Amino acid sequence: MKRKTWIVSALMYALVFLVCFGVLHVFKKITNAGDGAEYTTEAAADTDIIIDGSGVDADRGNDPENGKNGRNAEAELSEDTDGMETENDGGKDVHIRRETGYKGWKKTIEQVWPEIPKEEPYTPPKIIQATDLHYQSASSEDDGAAFNTFVERCDGKVVKYLPQLLDAFIDQVIKEKPAALVLSGDITMNGEKINHEELSERLHKVQDAGIPVLVIPGNHDINNPNAAVYFGDEKESTDSVTPEEFYDLYHMYGYDQAISRDSASLSYVYQLDERNRLLMLDSCQYEPKNLVEGRIKEETLAWMEEQLQKAKEDGMQILPIAHHNLLAQSRMYTTQCAMENNGEVIDLLQKYKIPLFLSGHLHVQRIRKHKAEPGVADDAYGIQEIITDSISIPPCQYGILQWKEDGSMEYSTESVDVSSWAKRTGQENTDLLDFEGWSENYIQKLIADQIGGVVKNVGREVKRSMAVTYADVYIDYYAGRKIDAKGVRTSEGYTWWERNLPDSYLLKELNSMINDADRDNNYLLLPEDTILEERYTWKKATASDATPSQADRTGKAD
Question: What's the pTM?
């Protein structure tokens, strides 16, 4: 009886044990399923051994290279992990390495999408225009009698110091960092090959500084019969240059970079930036002989129209630049300055609504707007011309043209600061150290000496007073400054002119300069509303010696 009771009790305890074990097993399965949901790929990558649901190393369970099946692997795991935390899984002890989750490792990949470059904002260009340098090399003269006679008969150019003036100007240009330096003709005194060669060599300094130099000839530069050198008491003829030689000497200054060249002349088109082109025009007549007057050849006019049309189609603003003048702008110099066929050129440029034309030749700073006929409204369209003064005549100034973001253009002038350059470079010459004062006195003395042959029987002080008055007007007129007409005509010096030489050509010139200088000609702003919409299509796209010598004023240019 007792034996039977014990057996029943044992069976009951066994049954209870099995039920408890079953409950625990189910609980374990549920728990493992929940843990698996939180077990990430990163954690798995950190785990030395991963156990799958069957308790077998998922990576090694059936590895033929190991010669082990899952069971053997499990046995090795059990042997190697003695002392580790265990759980009971179906009667087998399974050793599991507990992970703590993310430990700082991250997976990286190379950039999938290419980086989009940021669009650079458009910076409007700026150019510097210098004209009528009339460069004279120091090696072409010895400061002797012949050279000094030449200087005394000149029209005020600072011939003696032209090499130093050029050095100071080049340094100033490099400091300004324009998009281009434009030299618009009469770059040498009288076309002397020796002057061309030296000038070409010295211009390398500008281009070496990353500033393009653009050159066109003037009437003095090619096939000039007046080419000369000055040694001792003698003026000697010397070699000038042919058109081919001019190109050979200056091909690196605009011609090599041109997007189009005229086959009939030394004209070309230069792409200034993505919105602007420069139409560099050769307006000179040097074949079969050199002439003072300017003219655009018929073949060049045809080429010009092609370039103007192409610029319009390409949405480009185009700026024409020549040596000779487009418009007659001076009461004092009425001949030989404006191009002989300027009417044709004006009509062509206005056909394409070109707003501005740059030139030199006159040696006078002038700005004028073309009017087709009297009575045309001031705000009506008409091409404007800026004539930049000769850089070789005091105040030795050049032009600066700055494009603006709104499409307008701003022009102003600046004088070469020779004095600062002289101090900076350690010059000892007092003329250079006070160049402005020296140049003014130089002009006054030059004019006094030249009118000495005309003004007779007057005292030294009277002559000096007359010379100072003329020189002051002369400097201001050439520099394009407004002249106080009333103040000049009531001055002592002007009174002496009226008393002593009432019918002289010199007094007529003096009055012409006074009457011409009724406003300042050193600044121009072409606002956007004068730049006609039909011309500047790029804005839509982006938004969606020209003067005679002082000794022989005849109203003709030299």
Answer: 0.75
